[in-house]
Amino acid sequence: MHLHPSNWRPLVLCALLVGQKVWDDRYLSNADFAFIYPFFTTDEINRLEQKFLELIQYNVTVKASLYAKYYYELRTLYKDNEKEFPLTPLNNADAGKLEIRSHKYQQAFSDVTKEKEKMSSTIGSVQTIAKEKKSTGYAVIN
Fold first, then answer.
1. Between helices 8-23 and 92-136, what is the axis angle to 10°?
2. Does the predicted TM-score (pTM) go above 0.85?
């Protein structure tokens, strides 16, 4: 997906939302984000988050090499502007914690998606039965 003037804010919001849920032990809820960023309702943020996770295929892990790449790029930008860089490099212990959290988060969203698919198929079956009953007067159950 390419960034455009119309989509960069929702994408950054979703990236921050998912990132802080993976990283923080006590993360903000989507309702908190709706309060902080009132351009979206909680329901819209829920849908944005779901779509964002689908687009990234629920891959919320960050490899150490990718983290290091962006860490040093940001650090270079700060040095170029003669400012002190506020972040420290990711150490092995924190990297391990981040990886565990991201795998848990990824599994949780995968489980939620499977449950939604089950519910969707169940609702579809109920709707089919209701249509059959309405048209014939009898429910056909397979």
1. 110
2. no
The answer to whether the beta carbons of residues 39 and 6 sit under 8 Å apart is no
Hey, what are 130's tokens? 């209701």
| Tokens read off for 25 | 């032990």
Same domain, 65 and 119: yes
User: Do 27 and 70 reside in the same domain of the chain?
Assistant: no
CA angle 76, 20, 26 (to 5 degrees): 135
Which domain, by its residues, includes 13?
1-57
The Cα-based distances of 93 to 19, 32, 51, 129, 130 in angstroms read 18, 29, 31, 54, 55
How many domains does the chain fold into? Answer: 2
Structure tokens at 120: 């969707």
Contact 17, 33 (CB under 8 A): yes
User: CA-to-CA distance for 61 and 54, rounded, in angstroms?
Assistant: 14
106-116 pLDDT, tens per residue?
777 677 767 76
